[in-house]
Automatic annotation (TrEMBL):
<keyword id="KW-0732">Signal</keyword>
<feature type="signal peptide">
    <location>
        <begin position="1"/>
        <end position="19"/>
    </location>
</feature>
<protein>
    <submittedName>
        <fullName>Inositol-1,4,5-trisphosphate 5-phosphatase</fullName>
    </submittedName>
</protein>
């Protein structure tokens, strides 16, 4: 049967009643399985069906192999096509501004086991993720127009592009993620994708601000405990932050905190600062150095200063804050608990189409691409939640099922501030600041009952601890004749959203 005829069949089936009709129908004379039609079902229908037929482990993307550029092809058996082969070929760049070039993956499918089935694949490098689906037996091509950066080219030369066969019901989910992919591109187009995404999904406005886009800060007007909210809108960090903003409902994606020393010099404490080795760590650096790095950051950061409320500033125990900052300096960024601050309750916290199934899928793909990073990001934290040690993601899922807990329930077990990971206590950018606030005595008598690692950036800036009287903001804040209720010190756009 031709590809066209198969497509037509699927479309006809789609319009004639779906679901139960399929499962009970005996009219088909050809091999037929309910799994075959899952790809064309909408996500809301296909996931429950999948979940009923499979255990959580079966729903993981299946790692087929890496297609490397050394002129060898890989072969595997798919869910629909039993014969598959793929090879990778580097190509010339199609963009003028870069000479990195791109690549084409040639993928040949054969021997479909039924006429209704299709295979759905995800192709990933640590820099991009894309997908395609096949329901005809022939050679298909998948084109990477241009590598994002030299590091991606280098990665692909060494490790190739990873290919994952997806559980068939994932298609609806992937389709609804279609506007997520361009977010990670470090181009004007990528920046526009981020802005459009935030406008569409979060109602952000992104009006252009009048010049100057950069304030001339007088460090004398800045005090210990003042909060810096940073919003990156371009490149890999921009894309990552856009998704973080979306799942957490915050309009800022990163934060840092101001500290004054005894001689009146201004310093910045930051968790998630990239060191020379490319690792994200906690630092305390002079203001001038931080500002210079921020100004030349290619992610086009938008920065606002949120001074502490004067009453709290008076209570701020600076020596306790400094002691905490130095005790954390040099420690790694809190990958362990980052995602857990996103996920408080099963039902309310995932904006569609994100759900626990997708979270597991992404986790398992990352595990394959960057194993050490993945172990950092969630394996240890999930082990803590189970009270186990050293289980990998697969074993964690098996253990979870054995205990009769759903994976999404496991994710919602709250993080405890006193959990210590293999590389020390784990704090994200905002947990670092709130822990400092806790030490400095400004979260008051309730502070011992607050788990700061569960805080998102939005939770933090919604706290009623910042300056709420516009007339008391420093005179160098360009707040556009009172139009902005906060002090934006850098950025081309005004979010137009209440930060406070
Ligand atoms: C790659 O392999 C194919 C077939 O195995 C061969 O025809 C071709 O010449 C090879 N190309 C290179 C660049 O080695
Ligand atoms: C500030 O913190 C330090 C260290 O924790 C403590 O010794 C000191 O008594 C605190 N000062 C006040 C005024 O609370
Ligand atoms: C804001 O601060 C100014 C100057 O300190 C003061 O005169 C004014 O009463 C304050 N407004 C409010 C609403 O507190």
């Amino acid at each position: 049967m031709s590809a066209f005829a198969r497509a037509l069949c699927l479309i006809v089936l789609w319009f004639t009643g779906l679901g139960s009709h399929f499962i009970t129908s005996h009219a088909f004379k050809v091999p037929f399985r309910v799994n075959d039609v899952l790809p064309v079902l909408p996500h809301e229908i296909s996931w429950p069906v999948l979940n009923n037929f499979h255990s959580a482990v079966d729903l993981l993307p299946y790692f087929v192999g890496s297609v490397t550029p050394n002129n060898v092809s890989i072969a595997w058996k798919g869910a629909c096509f039993y014969g598959n082969e793929a090879r990778l070929e580097f190509t010339e760049s199609d963009r003028d501004e870069t000479d990195l070039g791109g690549a084409v993956i040639h993928l040949t499918t054969s021997a479909a086991h039924s006429w209704t089935c299709m295979d759905l694949y995800v192709f990933a490098t640590p820099y991009r993720i894309t997908w395609d689906y096949y329901f005809s037996a022939r050679e298909h091509t998948l084109r990477f127009d241009s590598w994002e950066e030299p590091a991606e080219l280098e990665y692909v030369k060494q490790h190739g592009v990873s290919v994952f066969l997806m559980p068939s019901g994932m298609m609806g989910t992937l389709f609804s993620l279609i506007d997520v992919l361009p977010l990670f591109s470090n181009t004007a187009w990528g920046q526009k994708a981020n802005i459009d995404f935030l406008k569409k999904h979060m109602g952000a406005t992104f009006e252009k601000r009048p010049q100057p886009w950069r304030a001339t800060i007088d460090p004398a007007d800045v005090h210990s405990g003042d909060f810096l909210a940073v919003s990156k809108i371009r490149g890999r960090w921009g894309g990552f932050e856009t998704l973080e903003k979306w799942v957490t409902g915050a309009f800022a994606g990163h934060t840092a905190v101001c500290l004054k020393d005894e001689t009146g010099n201004l310093w910045i404490g930051e968790s998630g600062h990239e060191n020379e080795k490319g690792e994200e760590i906690i630092v305390v650096i002079p203001w001038e150095e931080w500002w210079e790095l921020t100004l030349k950051d290619s992610s086009n950061p938008q920065v606002a200063l949120l001074p502490l409320h004067p009453e709290l500033r008076a209570k701020f125990n600076s020596s306790a804050a400094w002691a905490y900052a130095w005790s954390m300096s040099g420690k790694p960024y809190g990958y362990h608990n980052m995602i857990f601050s996103w996920i408080d309750t099963v039902a309310d916290n995932y904006p569609p189409p994100l759900d626990a199934n997708l979270v597991i899928s992404v986790m398992s793909m990352w595990t394959r691409l960057q194993p050490s990073y993945a172990a950092n990001m969630w394996n240890e934290a999930l082990n803590k939640r189970l009270g186990t040690e050293g289980l990998d993601l697969h074993d964690i899922l098996v253990e979870t099922e054995k205990r009769g807990i759903a994976f999404d329930q496991l994710l919602t077990i709250p993080e405890q501030d006193e959990w210590v990971y293999s590389d020390g206590k784990s704090t994200t950018c905002v947990a670092f600041i709130l822990s400092m606030y806790k030490e400095a005595g400004i979260l008051g008598p309730i502070s011992s009952s607050i788990q700061v690692t569960e805080f998102t950036i939005r939770d933090a800036y919604m706290l009623k601890i910042f300056e709420d009287n516009q007339t008391r903001l420093p005179s160098w804040c360009n707040n556009e004749d009172g139009q902005l209720p906060f002090c934006q010190i850098l950025g081309e756009y005004r979010d137009g959203t209440p930060w406070l």
